[in-house]
Amino acid sequence: FFLFLVFVVSMAVSSLLVGGVVAALCLVTVLVTAADRDFYKILGVSKTATKREIKKAYRALAMKYHPDKNPGDDTAADKFHDIGAAYEVLSDPEQREIYDKHGEEGLKNGGAKQHDPFDMFSSMFGGNSFFNFGGGKQRGNERPRGADVHLDLDVSLEDLYTGQFFEVLHTKPVPKKAPGTRQCNCRTEMRTQQIRPGQFQMINQRVCDECPNVKMVTEHLEIDVEIEPGMVQGQEIRFVAEGEPHIDGEPGDLIYHINTQKHPRFHRVGDNLFVNVSISLRDSLVGFTMEIQHLDDHKVTVERNEVTPPNHIVKVPNEGMINFDNNKEKGDLYITFHVDYPNRRFSDEEKETLIGLLKQDSKQSVYNGLEHRFVPK
Q1: For residues 377 and 372, what is the distance between their CA atoms, to the nearest angstrom?
Q2: Residue 236, SS3?
Q3: How many angstroms separate the CA atoms of 332 and 316, rounded?
Q4: What are phi and psi of 295, to 5 degrees?
Q5: Nearest 10 degrees: CA dihedral of 193, 195, 198, 201?
Q6: Is 315 helix (H, G, I), strand (E, B) or coil?
Q7: Contact 83, 61 (CB under 8 A)
Q8: Phi then psi for 152, rounded to 5 degrees?
Q9: Three-state DSSP class for 25?
Q10: Alpha-carbon separation of residue 52 from 48, 49, 76, 159 (angstroms)
Q11: What is the DSSP string of 318-339?
Q12: How far apart are the two ends of the chain, measured CA to CA in Å?
């Protein structure tokens, strides 16, 4: 790079000597631009990308190249730092405007400071328990801690099937420095007290330290909650140190619990999906072809070329929910068919025609339906 710099400067001087001021300035501009990083290219987004698209790209790349996921890989570590720098600039409207006009050099001239990419990662993921390779604080048991905050997060089956990001505004009290001191780390200690000459007794005495005074200030924090494909009802998403504060210790955790909303078509049991379909008597007798719209809008084709009796169940393999532990595996889709009978009276002539077509004798059976259906034989 130094040789390249010398070459460009010498070319610039030569251009000035021959009066080519414009050419010299262009060469200097090339030099500055060559040193800039293309933040849009680093994140793999277009220059018109929205803040949400930029955030989504950052999350995916930061997860992929985090040093804890790539131990000993210097290339991954460099990419992780570049990804953090790109997101920090492009997610801030003011910095992004400066970068678009003047490049990275313009940010440096404006005094912009780059933050620690690990702090940025921790702030983004909040120490999510599903990302155990970094970002979360390690706690010991020697310090007191605040209470955990438990909240339900309402999600749809579509969210659990395809995955989703939620931006949640979290409000929490944060301790800030205040004038004066306060008693802290109070505890009971055994002390020896002299009663009279030659006689002593052990007593319990409350002992406290002197600490800087603090006050609680309410802060609002935007937290990104990721719903991963295949998550289940009640599953926890934990954000370390985002719960209730403890004035003499560490804050508790913020824990979201997945709460699946009732779906108008599908019912989930484990990784399997269940759906009910009503068909006409005609479809039941002569067959039919239909499509069921799935949770990600793809179509599941169902074809019946035989009689479909009431409450008949058809299993469609690999059309259920995505498995959380292995996204390449899926459950099955179970379709229960219900037959809608005609709501009309048939004439004697029509009845005779139906009897002739069905070629079936009149037959009735009486049995215990519950036992017949549920008790194994």
Answers
A1: 9
A2: strand
A3: 6
A4: -65, -25
A5: -50
A6: strand
A7: yes
A8: -85, 140
A9: helix
A10: 12, 8, 24, 17
A11: T-SPBPSS-TT-B--EEEEEEE
A12: 82
H or E segment at 176?
strand 164-196
Please count the CA atoms within 13 angstroms of the CA of 219 that sit on its side-chain side: 14
Token couple for 222: 């935007």
Q: Cα(27)–Cα(15) distance, rounded to whole angstroms?
A: 10
CA 14 to chain centre: 57
> Which tokens go with 200?
């002593």
- Residue 243: beta bridge partners? none
Contact at 8 Å (CB) between 247 and 184? yes
Length of the chain, in residues? 377
Q: How far, in Å, are 53, 103, 122 from residue 322 at the CA level?
A: 24, 43, 28
Q: Which residue pairs from 18-25 have beta carbons closer than 8 angstroms and sit at least 24 positions apart in sequence?
A: none
CB proximity list for 106: less than 8 A, separation 6 or greater: 98, 99
Per-residue pLDDT for the chain (377 aa), expressed as one digit of tens each?
444 544 544 654 455 444 444 444 444 444 444 457 899 999 999 999 888 788 888 888 888 898 888 888 999 889 999 998 899 899 888 899 999 988 888 887 765 556 677 766 766 665 443 343 333 444 445 678 899 999 999 999 999 999 988 888 888 888 888 898 888 888 888 888 777 787 778 888 888 888 889 888 998 888 888 898 999 999 999 888 889 988 888 889 999 999 999 999 999 999 999 999 999 999 999 999 999 999 999 999 999 999 999 999 999 999 999 999 888 899 999 999 999 999 999 999 999 999 999 888 898 888 876 665 555 54
Packing angle of the helix pair 93-109, 21-35 (nearest 10 deg) = 110
